[in-house]
Amino acid sequence: MLPIAEKPKENLKGEHIFPATIIEPLAVKWKQLVADQKHAEASVVLEEIVCKSSPMFSRLAQYEGFHHTVDLESLVLAAQARVSVWLLYWDPAKGKLFSWLSKCSKNVFLSEVVRASRYRRQFYPTSDNLEKFVGTEDHAVVTNEAIEALKDILRDLSCRWGDEQAICCIRFHIASIVENPKGNKKAVIRAGAYASGLSIDLSKFYYNWALFLLRDAMYEKMNLQYTEQDLFRLVNSFTFLPDLLTIVTWEQMLKIIALLGGLRIKIPTLTQLEQAKTDYKLFRQLERGHHTPDDVAKAAKDFHVSVPTAQEIYENMTQQLHDDRSVETPLYD
Q: Per-residue DSSP letters for 2-60?
């Protein structure tokens, strides 16, 4: 065993993932070889830089959790393919190479998450046996027909979230509502949170959304006793509800009441819509770049925001544009 004083530089403390004392001189050497147009020698140096940087790419992808959406090998390969471009834009006077590569790789990981989600299928066939959700069948013709109708309705249900925890929680709430419509709502929400590993607030939202989904699916079968439009206008004369009838029809208003009755919905402003469009333009500008800090700084300058704000907008838009929110995912597959 070597004594401490004779340990190689690769094992220096704090550099077991990214040996900066070795890679930074190689990066400077590579830039000089490229400037001198010695491409054969530069290729050998670049290969060594990529090999020694790969553990850092792998660890960063796992630390940020990107490997849960895209396989780790694909993430590392995407980062390796852009190392040469990142080195060209790297200026030793602006900071250390580790910080530069970590920021660049994180941005390209975010891009890979969005790109991978675009290839997911939107709809999937379902074939689960839903007998347990409707109770035991008897031999009555009417009961059997009602159960079959309910099965057909449940088979066609879908949601806009693709993660397994959300689907598990919504399925649990649907089962609870169908089996016992007058059950303890708080207990169901709490059990749904424990069963799916989600927070109580998120389980509560999924319970209300599952109730809305069932109301929507069974709306045509509901026998709601409503009065005339005049009574609706008079009872709600000191609210904005009657004014909605200038935008939607009375039949549409009845459906809104049946599906969303009792819920508070905050309507976005035109300013918020414009801000979302601006954030998307900033996101698209960064997507077309090389995912370097210089690109982030340029986008921040173009859109008159700070660099941390631009980076935060890019990360938020990556999550908001994720396929889990943009497609309908079947609850039962």
A: --GGG--GGG-TT-SS--HHHHHHHHHHHHHHHHTT-HHHHHHHHHHHHHHHHHHHHHH
- At 28-79, the pLDDT tens digits run 999 888 888 888 888 888 888 988 999 999 999 999 888 888 888 888 888 8
The tokens describing 214, both together, are 């069932």
What span, in angstroms and rounded, lies between the C-alpha atoms of 279 and 257?
33
* CA distances (Å), origin 27, targets 48, 81, 94, 106: 10, 16, 14, 20
159 pairs with which residues across the strands? 329
Q: Where are the domains of the chain?
A: 4-117, 123-221, 223-265, 270-322
Radius of gyration of the chain (CA): 28
Nearest to 281 by CA among 308, 324, 310: 310
212 vs 216: CA distance, rounded Å: 6
Q: In angstroms, how far is CA 102 from the centroid of its own chain?
A: 22
Residue type, 224: L
Mean pLDDT in residue range 125-138: 39
Residue 44 has a pLDDT of 85
The CA-based diameter of the chain, rounded to the nearest angstrom, is 92
Q: How far apart are CA 96 and CA 108, in angstroms?
A: 19
Distance CA 285, CA 53 (A): 27
Let me know: does 133 contact 175? Beta carbons within 8 Å.
yes
Angle formed at CA 314 by CA 309 and CA 316, multiple of 5 degrees: 90
Q: Where are the alpha helices (DSSP H) in 157-269?
A: 164-179, 185-196, 200-217, 229-235, 241-244, 250-260
